[in-house]
Amino acid sequence: MHTAALSWLKSLSELEKPVSKRQKGPLPYPAPGIGAAWLGDSAAFGFGDGMMKLGEAMVRCHDGGMLAMQASSDGQSIWTSGDDGRLVQVDLHGHVQERLQVPRKWLDSLAISADGSLVAVAAGQTVHVLGPDGSPQELRPPKGPTALAFAQDGQELAVTHSGGVSLFELSSGELVQEIPCAGGPISVAYGAEDAFLFVGLSEPALAGWRLHDGQAFKMGGYPAKPRHLVQNKTGSVLLTSGGPALLAWPIVAGKGPMGQSAGVYRPRLGLVTAVAIHETRALVGWSDGGVDQVDLSSGKTGFLAGPRPRTELLDDPRKMRRSILSLAFHASGKRFAYVGEDGSFGHQWLQ
């Protein structure tokens, strides 16, 4: 065959080689993501089929589905709850210990105190609080719990429900305050020194109160539910999901976010579905499965993982089924982990 023809056939065969469009990294796990965390230096990912990927190992946590997952503040254990009525603790070696079993109940909300000595989990219309010795205490809010949060001093537990927020004193187990709140609270967090209480609403909106006098405030304009409420260690800034951008609310002593304008960071189009913070660096998870970083001190943003930012939206972000559900910094702040609604997951170093 003529040399020119051979050259032409070779170039044609190269053009016809299939080009992979799959994102580099592990394939999505065949179950929805629930949580991402770190156990020591090992990344951990919880999935809806009751399994946890810990390092290279797969650990069975629940006989049914996993519903919630959270790491202790010291990074030495992870707690998960499921539709099998079990609350379990996983240690650094992947050993699973059952800490509570509530037959025929879904355990779907979970919280751990700042010092790791208390764990609260919702089962039906009851909240079970495990103390340092593992003994359970039962709290009964007026309606079924939707979210839980410990006060930073560990002396109080906030329980959201369809009618508002119930505050329980843990030393006595008594309901000490009932805060009415319309709009359907779905997330909750205490502010610095427990001076403020913040809730995300199904409405969707962000609301809150200055606790010493009950002064209320509300910030609307969210196109989606603010499910993630995250603060830095000093409590000077509150990051929220649910917006078309990362919103960083300044928290001023005595005033909270009242009268303040949020910092707005929008490195891509879509909805923010998960947030995390370490010092002045924030991680932002998006409805399209992407992860970006934001330097809150300089305002600089950068792409980290998943699909790269687009110049136009191809789908309604509220209908996407690949949202990032959980983000976690390594204790050093130099690595992060993420997991998505579609089972996508990963971890990598930060530059």
- Portion in helices: under 10%
Classified by CATH, the class of one domain is: Mainly Beta
Query: What structural category do the secondary elements indicate?
Result: mainly beta
Largest sheet: 4 strands, antiparallel
Strand content: over 45%
Radius of gyration: 22 Å
Can you give the mean pLDDT? 91
What features would you describe in this structure?
With 351 residues, this protein is mainly β. It has a domain at 188-340: 7 Propeller (Methylamine Dehydrogenase, Chain H). Helix content is 4%, strand content 47%. The protein has one helix at 3-15, and strands at residues 33-39, 42-47, 51-54, 57-60, 66-71, 77-82, 86-91, 96-101, 107-112, 119-123, 126-130, 136-139, 147-150, 156-161, 164-169, 174-180, 185-190, 196-201, 205-210, 215-219, 229-231, 237-240, 246-250, 263-265, 272-278, 281-286, 291-295, 301-305, 324-329, 335-340, 345-349. A 4-stranded antiparallel sheet has the order 1-2-3-4, with no helix packed on it. The chain has a 4-stranded antiparallel sheet with strand order 5-6-7-8, with no helix packed on it. A 4-stranded antiparallel sheet has the order 9-10-11-12, with no helix packed on it. A hairpin with a 6-residue loop joins strand 9 and strand 10. 44% of the residues are buried.
